[in-house]
Amino acid sequence: MQRWRDEIRMTRGAIKGGAAGAAFIGLAVTLAAPPAAATTLTGSQACAVTPAADPQRLYGDQIRFDVRRNGDLVGSHTVSFTRDGDRLQTSTRFEVAVDVLFITAYRYVYASEATWSGACLEALTATTDDNGKESAVRVSRSGQGLLVSGPQGTASAARATLPTEHWAYAVVGDDAVINTITGRVNRVDISPAASETVTLADGRAVTARRYVYSGELDNEVWYDAEGRWVKMRFPAKDGSSIEYVCVTCGIDRVSSRS
């Protein structure tokens, strides 16, 4: 029984250690070079999005990843997209459950609802249930910027700051993100690494470029040549590796450049 208790403790540490990574997300442009940082633009420029970067054109109506810990399937992450007039609505859910002797001994659920105007966030509500311990983060417009409130207080962010929900490739040009678990505005450096072969859940292989987060967040995210999010990996506090494996991420859709 002690072994089961240790496993639950380690898994709980893994999810808490990777929660910020699990909640990261962005808007696609070409992978040839990162876009200019959104903070260099103002007003409608900062929120403009090209047809090629439309997430529904890139992904369809939903993204889905298997979540694996040291190779073992432990949960899932989904993002759904819908239109409400000229605004985009996104719904995100990340869920992990640990079963012991046919009983769910530990459960972690993150869920968010967000409204977007072009490439800019208008509003977001995110909730986290960490095995019964609940918390919430809310983002709203405040003048020319964003107001973020969460478990650690309130913070201000620039109008075009993206939340940690990785579907938008435009995040690779930024140096700050809104952490939708803690409510903090994290300073980050997102550096391009090599193009690599990524294996999808169905066994197919795609070429994608890896981007490495450093600074206040530790994370790796892969985007294909169209700017689609196809993989993510981050270390947990217990030393395990949490990896997102693409089940549905728009790979079969017609090229957004056509």
Commentary on this structure:
The chain is mostly beta strands and 258 residues long. The chain has one domain. It is built from three helices and 16 strands. The chain has a 15-stranded mixed β-sheet. β3 (72-84) and β4 form a beta hairpin. The longest helix is centred in the N-terminal third of the chain and has 21 residues, at 2-22. The protein starts with a helix and ends in a 10-residue tail after the last strand.
Provide keyphrases for this structure.
258 residues; mainly beta; 15-stranded mixed β-sheet; 3 helices; 16 strands; 55% strand; globular; disordered N terminus
Strand order of the largest sheet: 9-8-7-6-5-4-3-2-16-15-14-13-12-11-10
**What's the helix count?**
3
Task: Tell how many strands the DSSP assignment holds.
Answer: 16
Average of the residue pLDDT scores = 82
Concise account of the structure shown:
This protein is mainly β and 258 residues long. It has helices at 2-22, 43-47, 55-59, and strands at 26-27, 62-69, 72-84, 87-100, 103-117, 120-130, 133-142, 145-150, 153-158, 162-169, 176-178, 185-199, 205-215, 219-224, 229-235, 241-248.
Question: Topology of this structure?
Answer:
Blueprint: H1 2-22, E1 26-27, H2 43-47, H3 55-59, E2 62-69, E3 72-84, E4 87-100, E5 103-117, E6 120-130, E7 133-142, E8 145-150, E9 153-158, E10 162-169, E11 176-178, E12 185-199, E13 205-215, E14 219-224, E15 229-235, E16 241-248
Parallel strand pairs: 10-11
Antiparallel strand pairs: 2-3, 2-16, 3-4, 4-5, 5-6, 6-7, 7-8, 8-9, 11-12, 12-13, 13-14, 14-15, 15-16
